[in-house]
Amino acid sequence: MHNITIRLYRQYDLDLIALKRTIGFNFSGHAKAALISYITKKPYKFVAPEKEELKPGYIPSVMRLQLQLNNKEWEIINAGLKQIRDGYKNAFIKAVIRKSMEGFVFDIYRDRKDLIFAKEEDYLEEPTEKYREKKQKPQETIQREQKLEKDEKKEPKKIDQTEQSKFANTSDLHDETFYEDDTGGLEDDIAKMIQGMSAIAHN
Q1: What mean pLDDT is reported for the chain?
Q2: How far is CA 165 from CA 113, 119, 159, in A?
Q3: Model confidence at 202: pLDDT above 50
């Protein structure tokens, strides 16, 4: 088996991250099929899921996805990637995936409470002035929080077990690398493209 790493960046690749996190959507299978189809010049399209049932939890700044390839898939894809300029293979792979996708994903861009992002300064857009004003705390609030903080030091706050376990089952909370080898029903499509490539090679 061979591996190809795809790096997905939260600031630039939320559409592809959404595909990866959509429950029941076989991102790795479509990614492999898209690459093989482009390299072998065989048409291949997949449709973006209409319902974005996204896996909740933390979205890291960088997600590393390992595509696992068999020998024949590796032979085709590696030969195609050798023609790409060094340092741009990752961008090329993502461009090919997007080229093969029909439709778009939007839901991940909404301010969803079940998707955890990093701090405000990690976002591309600067907060609006209205947002900054909203974030400024009144003096009364500051004093009240200081008082609560002192009280909490005297008596430790009980942890809400429901809130604590809300995202406890998200497997990628601390793991930013995903290994994919299931083509999930796309074996025939990939096999046909490989077979077509073999036929071309023998002519």
Answers
A1: 76
A2: 15, 21, 10
A3: no
